[in-house]
Write a structure and sequence with these properties.
Blueprint (H helix, E strand, L loop, with lengths): L2 H8 L3 H8 L7 H11 L3 H5 L19 E6 L2 E5 L8 E8 L15 E8 L1 E6 L2 E6 L3 E5 L4 E5 L5 E8 L2
Antiparallel strand pairs: 1-2, 2-3, 3-9, 4-7, 4-9, 5-6, 5-8
Protein name: HTH cro/C1-type domain-containing protein
Keywords: DNA-binding
Pfam families: Cupin_2, HTH_3
Length: 165
């Protein structure tokens, strides 16, 4: 597949794809999901196609075996679901103040559910915004345009699950 083909399939410009390929910019969460869908692979595979995830214990993920899923400035997202979980992807996400998924909402297949463990999370779904604090939960279809950000003064931790349905 050429960059032009991928640009056409994903709606992401050739220039942006080229910058990502040359590691001049880091893709946003939205971009990773969009590219994954266009290529028919998971966003996790895009970050580490040689991952030993399937070689790990099929039922348990210990704290020292968490798989880094996404690392960008102000955002750390670890895959915490074991290899046997094909349709559920659990994430432990840490957001620094002022950081999140980006300005533009994104959508993908599946459903999502989450729990804010600490901090303040702004969650926007289809243009409606909620302010969630420690102990607050959310759930929504992933194909609704959504975005999130830490709008608090301290780090925000979220337990987030994506389900492929």
């Amino acid at each position: 597949m050429t960059l032009a083909d991928l640009a056409a399939a994903s709606g992401i410009s050739i220039g942006t794809l080229s910058q990502i390929e040359r590691e001049l910019v880091s893709p946003t969460v939205r971009t990773l999901f969009t590219l994954g869908e266009a290529l028919g692979v998971s966003a996790a595979w895009l970050l580490d196609p040689e991952s030993d995830e399937k070689k790990a214990d099929p039922y348990v993920v210990t704290a020292d075996r968490r798989q880094p899923f996404l690392r960008s400035e102000g955002l750390k997202k670890d895959l915490i679901s074991p290899a046997s979980s094909d349709r559920l992807r659990g994430f432990y996400m840490l957001l620094e103040p002022g950081y999140g998924s980006g300005e533009a909402p994104y959508a993908h297949n599946g459903e999502e559910i989450g729990l804010v463990m600490c901090g303040v999370l702004e969650l926007e779904i289809e243009g409606e915004t909620w302010i969630l604090r420690e102990g607050d939960c959310f759930a929504f279809p992933s194909d609704l345009p959504h975005r999130f950000a830490n709008i608090g003064a301290t780090q925000c931790a979220v337990f987030w699950i994506n389900a492929d349905i």
